[in-house]
Amino acid sequence: MEHRLSKRVQGKLGLLVYKRGMPVATGQIRDASKRGLFIATDYTDVQLNQTVELEFRFPDTQEKRFRRLKAHVVRKSDKGLGVDFEGVENDGFTISSLMHWLKSHHIPANYFPVRRQQAY
């Protein structure tokens, strides 16, 4: 069982992953919390605890500026990267804006469908 310190919000939002100031990959935010994100990507050339920058913008707003967050890679899998905001300097407003956008654009998904019980 996983232990989370803050609630996760599911959503989808494209982003760019930067390493040492250079864009190295594309990805898509799949879930987020005030403390971190899970990014769906096939990018694997990154180490645990490495700092990356994430650049995104909200596609349906009048504001066209890109936003950036710094994060540490805390998990790698064949489906993507888990990153944490702890220990890096970020704008709290950007994290709050991201959480708000994901909540308001969430498409519910049935991840754990109810299993039909067989009659015996």
Walk me through this protein's architecture.
With 120 residues, the chain is mainly beta. The protein has a single domain (9-104), classed as Thrombin, subunit H (Beta Barrel). The protein has 1 helix and 6 strands. It has one helix at residues 92-104, and strands spanning 9-19, 22-32, 36-40, 51-56, 67-77, 80-84. A 6-stranded antiparallel barrel has the order 1-2-3-6-5-4. Strand 5 (67-77) and strand 6 form a beta hairpin. The chain starts with 8 loop residues before the first strand and ends in a 16-residue tail after the last helix.
Number of domains: 1
**Mean pLDDT over the residues:** 84
**Count of extended strands:** 6
Q: What oligomeric state do the depicted chains represent?
A: single chain
Order of helices and strands: EEEEEEH
Pfam family, one: PilZ
Domain PilZ: 23-91
Protein name: PilZ domain-containing protein
GO molecular function: cyclic-di-GMP binding
In short:
With 120 residues, the protein is mainly β.
Layout of SSEs?
Layout: E1 9-19, E2 22-32, E3 36-40, E4 51-56, E5 67-77, E6 80-84, H1 92-104
Antiparallel strand pairs: 1-2, 1-4, 2-3, 3-6, 4-5, 5-6
